[in-house]
Amino acid sequence: MAKARVKVPKTAKAGDVITIKTLIKHKMESGNRKDKKTGKKIPKHIIDKFTAKFNGEEFFSSDWDTGVSANPYCSFTCRVDKSGEFEFAWHDEKGEVTTKKASITVG
Amino acid sequence: MNEMKLKAVDRRTFIIGAGASAAALAGLSSLAQATPQEAADFLAKLTGGKTPAPGKVKLEMPEIAENGATVPVKVTAETPQNEGDNCKSIAIIATKNPRPRMCVFHFTPRSGKATAAIRVRLATTQEVWAVAEMSDGSWHIAKTTVKVTIGGCGG
Asked: Is A77 touching B (CB cutoff 8 A)?
């Protein structure tokens, strides 16, 4: 499991559009790099899908290709009208999934 | 070279010449670089052949990126982002990277705003496109050029 960090406001007013920031530690190996010792290409290994859910509803997702930097940072927004839980998931092309949860109180 | 000769060099020959020198450069750095044509082909595939109109989508990037390995990008579509009028997706396309598609954001009315930020790799100085698909089926595009001092796609 790769190490992931998310920043979600603790509280918000109903109807607010909040900004969420996410960061995950991952090399995002592009497949274009060569091993300096052997001269062989390092195989491609990236996270190709990111999803964000609020109370089980997917409200934002993103498809990533080799053009995304190492340790991908991604920020986006969500309209909240009640308290609930966010769930974020990073899908690696080898099938590994990293998830992270965060909750918000809306009053 | 006199003026007549300069004029005689038409667009086609110029592009071929430029392509050849780009290929020579790519050979040096052993980097398979896509051409703007590949980016245009990808765009056509994405929109289903529709030509996106300018406006309605904003692409924010630095004019000069010292390090191509991590260049911040922010995209925003000007929509109310409600059930009837929203932006469905925004794709970020590089015109001179090994692969034209860098990332695609998918929004919903729940997103509240059609905006997202990410960091991308740029192999060289190039034009970057942001292409937005609206809920009414229309497509919009924004373009910007980023100068890159050190390329970020490895070699």
From this structure: yes
Interface of B with A (CB under 8 A): 30-32, 69-71, 81, 92, 94, 97-99, 101-113, 115-121, 152-155
- Higher per-residue pLDDT: B11 or B38: B38
The predicted-structure confidence for A21-48, as pLDDT tens digits, reads as follows 999 999 999 998 888 899 899 999 999 9
Is residue A84 pLDDT above 90, yes or no? Answer: yes
Q: What is the mean pLDDT of residues B24-37?
A: 54
CA dist B23 → A7, B19, B30, B126, B153 (Å): 43, 6, 10, 15, 16
Is B13 or B40 the better-scoring residue by pLDDT?
A: B40
A79 has a chain B CB within 8 A of its CB = yes
* A49 CA: distance to closest CA in chain B (Å): 10
Q: What is the pLDDT of residue B100?
A: 95
- Judge contact between A41 and A31, C-beta under 8 A: yes
Domain of residue A50, CATH code: 2.60.40.10
Task: Please state the domain count of chain A.
Answer: 1
What are φ and ψ of residue B114, in 5° steps? -95, 80
Q: In angstroms, how far is CA B107 from the centroid of its own chain? A: 19
Domain B34-148 has CATH 2.60.40.2470: yes
Structure tokens at A25: 């530690």
The whole-angstrom separation of Cα B139 and Cα B123 is 27
Domain that includes residue A88, residue range? 4-106
Where do the DSSP E strands lie in chain B? 53-54, 57-60, 64-67, 71-77, 87-94, 101-107, 114-120, 126-134, 139-150
- Determine which of A12-26, B13-27, B40-54, B126-140 has the lowest per-residue pLDDT on average: B13-27
